[in-house]
Amino acid sequence: MGYIEKIQSMLQNGEISCVELTEKYLKAIEEANGELNAYVTVTPEVALEQAKQVDEKIKRGEKLLPLEGVPMTLKDNISTNGIETTCCSKILKGYKPIYDAKVWEVLKKNNAILLGKTNMDEFAMGSSCETSCFGGATNPFNTDHVAGGSSGGVASAVGGDIAAFGLGSDTGGSIRQPASFCGIVGLKPTYGAVSRYGLVAYASSLDQIGPITKTVEDASLVYDVISEYDENDSTCEGRQGEPTYDTLNNDIKGMKIGIAREYLEGVREDVKEAVLEAAKKYEEMGAEIVYFDLPALKFALPVYYILACAEASSNLGRYDGIRYGYKTEHYEGIHDMICKTRSEGFGEEVKRRILLGTYVLSAGYYDAYYLKALRVKALIKKAFDEAFAKYDVILGPVAPTTALKMGESLSDPIKMYLGDIYTVSVNLAGLPGISLPCGQDKDGMPVGMQLLGQTFDEKSIIRAAYAFECTKTYKRPDALGTVEAERGLA
Fold this sequence. Notes:
Layout: H1 3-12, H2 18-36, E1 39-42, H3 44-59, E2 71-75, H4 102-109, E3 113-118, E4 138-139, E5 142-146, H5 152-159, E6 165-169, H6 176-181, E7 185-188, E8 209-213, H7 216-226, E9 256-260, H8 269-284, E10 288-292, H9 300-315, H10 333-345, H11 348-361, H12 366-388, E11 393-397, H13 408-411, H14 413-418, H15 424-429, E12 433-440, E13 446-452, H16 458-469, H17 483-486
Parallel strand pairs: 2-3, 2-6, 9-10, 9-11
Antiparallel strand pairs: 1-3, 4-5, 6-8, 7-8, 7-12, 11-13, 12-13
Helix pairs in contact: 2-3, 7-16, 9-11, 9-12
């Protein structure tokens, strides 16, 4: 039984009311968030009002919907009507959307309990959550380490047990990497499987919303709920085929799992060993492990940063101090106002990426950089298609190391960029990927692995991840006390 199902079972059986459960989570946030810095906005009034509605439904003897009554959180780049949505940037301070993102609209209909909005790298640009104007979220296993990014706040909240699940966004690994660092599960769906309507854009052709959860079973359940077709997003097709939750089983006999040799290059030895041990476990379960070459991967990082920064330059052009958000106090004329507003409102990393993106789109460089990157992106997708003609899923590490210490990425931005080396290719090819824990390093920090699948084949990667998860018992962080045990959910 997954964590979400366990919570709902307790609610349905009257072991705890939804209001009591919500109050416990809100108290846990109050006690732990000072250290974790996972939440940037807490919404107790919204949460308790939703919880009362769930309790009334239970009293009437009605069956709960799949995520009903479950306390959760949203990354702060997912629009929430009337609730501040800042993307953790000074330039959006005080901004309250006038509409809900499609995913939040769906979750509201299911009476999921919104505890608040969580921390992130500014405009999702970063791999440690430290570019946030609120300061970075910390890792629940060791708060001297980062939670990862850019969805670090969601991962910190779920890993630290101050949310049962959350939704993040993944542009180049921003769901999978923080989930890996925090010892939990992160699912990046196929591009177009989940609506992006209401997601504040970083790079529109790469962004994808997905769940961060405690278990693979929970990730499957959340994905099935949020993967609705949405006419407001022209790229959204919704989930293809039957719900993944209905097909969960741990039988993977005969499954072909490919390991690209390029994914094992430059990885710290203990991380590589944990991933290879997972491969052995799959062999014991009856899967076939095959090593192969995927040379196109070496182009993924430069292609990603050219395309993502180009799209960011375009998408962030709308923040000018005129319509909403931050506006500089002292200026002379409209051009000076826009220049000062953007200079003061954006952080250093965001400005760096805007400058790079503007450069590659400028006259004389468009063909040399942006157009060439688009062609290589197509070659990367073709290389993956050829691989999936032979293998059901591809196995590899999520990141070259475990979670870095706070401040390491900021002092050396190259570490931030190189940390994306194993995740960005999935976004370039529009593929689904799932991250889950497969071990720990000598300091007890989680090691994560990822399973990649063909377009709209979330079912295969979830099935393979679930089979591995069934063989493991994971140690949960205890730095924040026994919050889970107090809820009777241990």
